[in-house]
Structure formats: C-alpha cells, structure tokens
Design brief:
902 residues; alpha/beta; 36% helix; binds guanosine-5'-triphosphate; binds calcium ion
Length: 902
C-alpha cells in the first residue's frame, strides 16, 4: 500500500499555495517511515466496512418522487481521475445504495490525499466509527483496481495543480461531511460533462451525518432538523461554480439558500429553474432553508438583477419570503423551555417589537418586562411585554449568578453593573419587580422606586455593557444587517474607549470627533455646554477682577512712593485714587466683591448660570469700564487665567446674554461636555477621504462599518479602576496623555501633590494590567503637541524624573535640504522620547506593541488622523488574529520602537 501510494501521489505541498488568501495547509501523504522508534501511539486508519455505514431510509415523500430527481453524493473533485470513472458508472445506471459506496470511496480517497481529508474521515462521517473492528476494505481496494484508476501520476498531478485547494474553499471545513449535493459535480476540464444537465438520481438513499459546528440551533432537540439541513450541504469551493465548475473568483454567484451551492451567471437558470421558492437548486425545492441564510431572504443580488427584469426579481424574492417551505418552523423555537406552536410564533413575530433575526434556538422571555435573550445569556433585546408565548420564566434562564432577581430571573453580572451604575441599591440581594416601562420596585413592597430608563446616562451604560434598551429609544447599533442595492451587508461596530488623566484632553478629542464625523450635539448637550461656558466665563471674570484689585493696590503703592519722592505739597489719597486707572465704580465694586466671595466659597457652578440673567447687564458695563480694560490688557500676568479664557472673554457680552447659542468652536473650546458620571458615547463612521487611497478598496469608505467612541473620565473608573469591567468588549483603548504634563503638579486632594506625567503613567499601568484589558490593543494619544512646542523651549523635559535621560543632540549641520524628518525639532524629539518610554513600559507589562499617535486635540485633522489610525490598527490586528499564530504576532512587538505614527 505504502509503495503504491508513493508511486502515484506527489508528496509535495500544493503548487499554488502562494495563492495567498486561500490555503495554508500542506498535503501530507503516506510514506514509509524510517526514523527512530516512536514512543507514542500511532493513529490507526480504521478499515471501513461499507456495509456498516448507516444509511437513512429512502425518501418516500410523494411530492418529491413525482417530479424531482434526487441529488447524489458528490465525489470530492480532488480525486478527479477516480470520480471520472465513478460518474460514468453512476450515469450508466445505478441502483439505490450507490451513494454508500461513494461515501466509502471518496472518504477513503480524501483520507489519503490530504490532511483535511483525514479529518473528514474522522469527523465528517462520525458513524463510520461504528465499523471499528470490521474487516471491510478501505479505499483503493483491489476490486476497484486502484492502480488503473490512478494510472499516470501526471494526470493526478494535473488535477492537484489546477485546484490544489481541496477543502479550504469548502465552506468552513465541512468537506467530507457532505452527504448529499444537488448534482454530480462535473469533472474539471471535461467540457462534455459541463454541457450536460446535472446528473441526478432518483431513489438514492440518504446518509445521515451531523454538522460538527452547528451552534445556532444547538440543542439536541433540534438535531434532527440540523441533520436534515446539513445533509443537503453542497461542497462549495471559493470562486467555483457548482455547476460548470469553472472558476471566476470575482464574479458574483447566486447561492442556494438550502445547500449553499453557488452558481455563476451562466448556470443559474439551469440550476435553479424558475425559482418558485426563491434561490434554490431545483433539487432543493421543498426543503427547509439553511438557517444561517435566513437573514438574506428576500434580498436579491446584483447578478439576479442582471439576469432577470426587476419585475421578475421582485417576484422571485416575494416567493422566497412567503413560500411555506421557507418559513421558520415554530417547533424549533423554544421559549422558556417550550417549543412554540404556530399561534405562538405568529404572536411573537407580529407583536409591536418582535425579536430581531429570529432563528431556531432556545430563548428566554420575561413576560413582565419584555426582556428577551438566548437561554443562558444576558438579555439581548426588549420585545413587547405580555405575549402569551412559552412557559413561565425560569430562575436560571440567563444563567445569572448574582443572587439578585428581576421578575423571578437571577440576573447576570452585566445587568447588575447596569443597576449599580444607575445608582440602584443592590445590597442584600434584592428581588426586583420591573415592568415594561422600566419602573421598578422591590418584591412584596408596593412602592415604585423609580424608572430604570430615566436614570442619567443609563442608555450609554447599556450600550457599553451591550445590554438592550427599550425599543423606542433603541437605535441601530452593534451588528446589524442592512439591506442595500447590492444585497446584504453586515454592519459591524467597533468600540473605542477613550480615557486619560485629568485635563489630558479626552473631552476635547471627543467633541472634535463629533464635529469631524458630523455627529450633531443634542439639544440637551448644547444647553449643558452653554451653561458650562457661561459659568466658566464668570470664573474668568472673577480671576480678572481679583487681578484688578492687585493691580489697583500696586498702582496705589507706586503712586505713594512717587508722591513721597516728589518735592512740594503731598496730594491727598482721594486725588491719588482718582488717578488710579485700576479703580472701578462702587456699583461694579459691589458686584466684584460678591463674585469673588462666591468663587472663594466654591459655589460658582451652583450660582451660575442661574444668576446670569440678573447679572448679564452688569457684564456689559464692566466690559466697557476703563479699569477692567486696563486689567484685561495685563491678563498675561494672571497665571490663574487659562489660555482659552481670551477666546471667551473677547465676547463676554455676547456670551453672558441669555439668548447666546454656542458655536461649534465654542463647544470645542468649552470645558467639559459630559454628564455627571463622566461618560459620553457617540457612534460614527469614516467618510471617504483621499488619505484612504492606499487602503484596500474594500476597507475604503465603508459607511456600514460603525465605530463607537466612548469617553470616560478617569475619576469615574472608581477605586482600582474597578469600573473598567464595564468596558470589557472594548476593541481598542485610546489612552490620552497631555504632553505638557511633564512639569505639572497635580493639584489634587490627596494632599501629596506629584508630577502629573508620573500620575498619568501610573493610571496607564493600572489600566494596561487590568484583567479586563488583557490582550487588548492600546493606542497612546500624546495630546497637546502645539503646547509642547512652546513649552519645550522654556522648560526642559528632564523636569520629569522619568525623562531624566532625555539628551537631545542638536544637529549643527543644518543644510538647506534638512527637513523636519532628517532634523527633527526639539518638540518632535521630546515627543519621540516620551513615546518610546511608554512603548517600553507597555512592552514590559504586556510583551506587546503599543501604538502611538501625536495629536493636537484642537485641530480637526489631527483627531481625524488619530482615529483613522485606530481603524487601521483594528483592521491590522484582526488580520493578524485570523492569519498568524500568536507567536509570530508577538515577535512584531520587538520592533516596538520602529513605528511611531505622527
Ligand atoms: N492648546 C491645546 N489645548 C488643548 C488640547 N487638547 C485639550 N486642550 C485644552 O486642555 C484643557 C483640558 O482639556 P479637556 O479636553 O477638557 O480635558 P479632559 O481630559 O476632558 O479633562 P477633564 O476636564 O479633567 O475631564 C481644555 O481647556 C482644552 O481646551 C490641545 O491639543 N492643544
Ligand atoms: Ca474637560
């Protein structure tokens, strides 16, 4: 046997393995073993007793026998030479039971011809193992005269050459488990076969097999159904038409919603006929659809529209949606353990807020609140309440382990966090009663404690925790199927978490992103920001007025000194005061005193802007006042006044008026945006940009790919960042650091004031090492580069002990050609130094690579660039995860310092 195989089978890997996207496995063929003795068991190839392969009973449904020819198992096309003969045999008239032989033959051949095939033998036809110990013959039995079948290794090689990709194209490795397929695959290169109509059989018996991967349907109760669907699976190879077997990778194909066979434009009509049940092979008519295709029911493809008129396409799609064979089978949907009857399914589907994308499976339903979820999982939707479907809900329906109950169901951790965040007390394992409108009370007590959905920020929290919110508030998010002219596209949502220390600029970046991606501020947000701007304005005024007092005093002392120096009679105090340009009128003085008092008491935010209406007229007077203007001219001396103050103070009169509406720039410059819990969230997608031109066209301008940017204030992360758990499904963490922090001291409550850069480093460490973020990707945003450029000229970076080794060599040969690249500025060097420090830190903590982006939050392009970089990282990391083993990926972090985006 061994020598026989050696003679005929090449032991090389597929020739076109450089095809890249297709396959990475190698064929391994049996060769005589000549190495040292092995210490472990050698897996045995078990002989198959063909008689013992179970076969299902013959299909006898009248409707099927009447006008249909039944599909037959296909030999795997890899074994072309063999299948050529087989198909001839089959054509020349075969009897029921032939398929059994086919299975054994194809199974055996595959087993020997590729690794994948071996797996197929083990998994695909599991019941074959019943035959262990039997003495059946295997594969190339003498009776088949394998040597003749395989005569001429060149022929075989040719077969391998042309499509040395057995299997991979096979939908998800289902290779040999296919037991039925709509037609005998014509043999590659045999034109005569292509022109023939597919060879079908009547009265072929059916071999049952199980889909090893099916998860959707899942339960043992739906096994039977599962099997039925699975039996029909066609072998599908990437790019190949299942009828003519010609390959055109890029040509669109029409896919059968039952067996998944795909047909090119030339073959669709022959293979699918008039499509009375939509896109099904003629032989699949009457069979239930593959549930994974349910989402695409009624959604036509471009190729159909090319083949048929619009009217015809619409008709076909209507059939596809409405014909009986394609309807959800109610008994496969379990609600609280009960298989539904027809009426219940109708009630479920016809209610105001039906479950989305309902598929066969097991669900739980809380009739009182409308919570709906998959058995053993947290709720995924809130559907209409009070539907009469299924049994009563079970305590462990969602597999919760919190001891806290909602409507007799023990809730999940995510739900508990949601309640806690909403400020609902969960101590003492309470049992809540929650009704459809979200009002909740403790069981046994007749007083409503509040409404869950009215809690501040609850919707954001739910979005973060991937928990549902009531339908009227729900807007599309997460994975959503969108119907477009080209058919069905899956929309995905990537979550980006933006976090950083105090004043690092996270809210600036968040707001900037809103503007860049055209996500409007809500009326509430605008109102909040307006009040925020106004109260900040009073704060700035207060600082100026305080400065004015100081200037007035200084001026007075100066005058006195001059007076005493002057010869002649000394002038009176009032005279001096009259000349003091920093003196204000008693009315303004009263206001000033009051304002300063309020500021000292720390009540500014509370009193303003409620009081702003009253004081608005005073602002105008004050603005015109000479003393005030003189003070304003010297505002640079007032270190308490933030840089941004001038922007608002210049328009103090306009801003303090009640009908002031902040512009977008005002909003950007304003401090703060977020509600009390420091959380803000927005969804966006990237508009097309010229910068994308280097990217894969598929990635370009994908408005369906949505991103959620979540900004959280570091103070809302709680002790030891315990709230980070909430963000466990974050795809990328954007950690924001202010580049100007290196000489700043935190003005914080703890009493011990420390360097802000070191504080930022500390927070970074705790977030990076937090279990929730294990293996997460991080993008470091080094913000406020514009300010660094100014500051670095005055204050050395070494002010921060972490950067004490910063020792830039200033190049002296500044040629006319030197660019910022060959001769970076001091700020660029400082930025790079800081970036490298963080990269090394990250690598030492995680062994992985930190991405870095240089940003000036006030510049829209900068923020856009950083977020596009974030998108690239996600795409890149996904590719890595799919294609490369972890070890290779880890190696890439060795070059951690090589790439620093700027
Ligand atoms: N010049 C300059 N100023 C910036 C930049 N980014 C943020 N700022 C300013 O820095 C200050 C703090 O920024 P925020 O965005 O409010 O910082 P934060 O992270 O929200 O900090 P908290 O207010 O503590 O939540 C604001 O006055 C911003 O206008 C920048 O890139 N350049
Ligand atoms: Ca802020």
């Amino acid at each position: 046997m061994t020598s026989l195989l050696r003679k005929f089978l090449p032991t090389s890997s597929p020739k076109n393995c450089d095809d890249g996207d297709d396959y990475s496995f190698e064929y391994s063929f049996a060769v005589e073993y000549s190495g040292p003795p092995v210490s472990h068991d050698i897996p045995l190839v078990v002989p198959i007793d063909t008689d013992r392969i179970p076969t299902a009973s013959v299909v006898v449904t009248a409707s099927m026998l009447s006008n249909l020819s039944l599909p037959v198992i296909q030999p795997v096309s890899k074994i072309n030479p063999l299948s050529k003969k087989l198909s001839k045999e089959l054509k020349s008239g075969s009897e029921p039971g032939t398929s059994t032989n086919l299975v054994s033959n194809s199974g055996a051949c595959v087993g020997f011809s590729s690794e994948l095939g071996l797996i197929g033998v083990e998994e695909g036809i599991p019941k074959v193992s019943d035959g262990i110990g039997s003495s059946g013959t295997f594969g190339f039995s003498d009776s088949r005269d394998g040597s003749q079948e395989l005569s001429g290794s060149s022929e075989l090689e040719e077969g391998l050459d042309d499509d040395g990709e057995v299997g991979l194209g096979l939908d998800e490795g289902e290779l040999s488990s296919r037991a039925l397929s709509p037609e005998i695959r014509s043999i590659q290169g045999e034109e005569d076969c292509i022109e023939e109509s597919p060879c079908h059989f009547t009265g072929t018996s059916v071999v049952t097999s199980r889909d090893p991967e099916s998860t959707d349907v899942g339960s043992e109760l739906t096994d039977h159904y599962d099997q039925e669907i699975f039996q029909r699976r066609a072998i599908v190879k990437k790019g190949f038409c299942n009828r003519c077997n010609k390959r055109n990778r890029f040509a669109e194909k029409v896919v059968c919603i039952v067996c998944r066979a795909q047909y090119c434009g030339n073959c669709v009509v022959r293979a699918m006929g008039s499509m009375p049940e939509g896109r099904k092979c003629i032989t699949c008519i009457g069979f239930p659809i593959d549930e994974s295709k349910r989402g695409s029911l009624g959604k036509s493809s471009r190729i159909l529209r090319q083949l048929f008129s619009d009217l015809e396409v619409n008709e076909i799609m209507r059939f596809e949606i409405s014909c009986e064979a394609n309807q959800l089978p109610p008994q496969l949907i379990y609600v609280n353990g009960k298989p539904l009857c027809h009426e219940e399914l109708v009630a479920l589907q016809m209610c105001l807020n039906p479950p989305k994308k309902l598929k066969p499976g097991r669900y739980w339903y809380d009739k009182v609140s409308g919570f709906w979820g998959k058995e053993g999982e947290k709720p995924c939707q809130i559907i209409s309440a009070q539907l009469n479907v299924g049994y009563a809900i079970m305590l462990k329906a969602s597999n919760g382990d919190t001891n806290i109950r909602i409507n007799n169901r023990e809730i999940t951790k995510a739900e508990l966090r949601m309640l806690q965040w909403a400020g609902i007390h969960c101590e003492g394992s309470p049992h809540f009663w929650v009704s459809a409108d979200g009002s909740y009370q403790e069981e046994g007590q007749n007083n409503v404690m509040g409404k869950i959905w009215e809690k501040v920020g609850i919707k954001i929290v739910c979005a973060l925790l991937s928990l549902p919110i009531p339908p009227e508030d729900a807007k599309p998010s997460g994975e959503e199927v969108v119907n477009t002219a080209n058919g069905v596209l899956h929309k995905t949502l990537n979550k980006l978490l933006l976090v950083g220390c105090d004043k690092s600029g996270t809210s600036t970046i968040f707001k900037q992103a809103k503007m860049v991606y055209n996500v409007p501020f809500s009326a509430d947000e605008r109102q909040d920001i307006k009040l925020q701007i106004q109260s900040s304005l009073y704060g700035y005024l207060g600082i100026l007025l305080e400065g004015r007092e100081r200037f007035e005093e200084e001026f007075l002392m100066e005058m006195r000194r001059k007076c005493s120096d002057e010869p002649g009679p000394s002038r009176s105090c009032s005279q001096i005061n009259g000349e003091n340009i920093y003196s204000i009128s008693p009315r303004l003085k009263a206001f000033s005193d009051w304002l300063l008092e309020v500021m000292i008491s720390g009540n500014l935010d509370i009193i303003f802007p409620a009081a702003s209406r009253e004081y608005a007229p005073l602002i105008e007077d004050m603005w015109k006042d000479k003393a005030f203007q003189a003070t304003y001219d010297r505002r640079n001396e007032l270190h308490m006044l933030p840089r941004i103050a001038s922007y608002f103070l210049d328009r103090a009169v306009e801003i303090s008026s009640t009908d002031y509406e902040p512009s977008d720039t005002d909003i950007l410059y304003a401090e703060g945006i977020t509600p009390s819990n420091g959380l803000a969230s927005m969804e966006f997608s990237f508009p097309k940009s010229t910068q994308d031109s280097f990217m894969d066209p598929a990635d370009q301008n994908d408005p369906l790919h949505r991103y959620q940017l979540i900004r959280v204030h570091s103070s809302s992360l709680g002790e030891n960042c315990k709230w980070l758990e909430m963000f466990e499904d974050t795809d990328l963490v954007l950690y924001c650091v202010s580049l100007t922090d290196y000489d700043q001291l935190s003005d914080y409550t703890t009493g011990v004031s420390s360097n802000k850069m070191l504080e930022s480093k500390k927070l970074f460490e705790s977030i990076v090492t937090h279990p929730t973020f294990h293996q997460k990707n991080f993008l470091l945003i080094l913000n406020k580069f514009d300010l660094l450029e100014e500051k670095i000229e005055e204050i050395p970076l070494t002010q921060c002990e972490w950067f004490s080794d910063f020792n830039p060599v200033i190049s002296h040969n500044q040629s006319s050609t030197s660019s910022s690249y060959t001769n970076p500025s001091l700020a660029q060097r400082a930025f790079h130094h800081i970036a490298v420090k963080f990269k090394r830190l990250f690598h030492s903590l995680t062994g992985r690579k930190l991405y870095v982006s240089r940003v000036t939050g006030l510049e829209p392009d900068c923020v856009d660039e950083a977020l596009r970089y974030a998108r690239e990282i996600l795409t890149w990391e996904e590719t890595w995860e799919e294609e490369k083993p972890l070890t290779v990926r880890d190696l890439s972090s060795c070059s951690a310092e090589a790439s620093t985006s700027s």
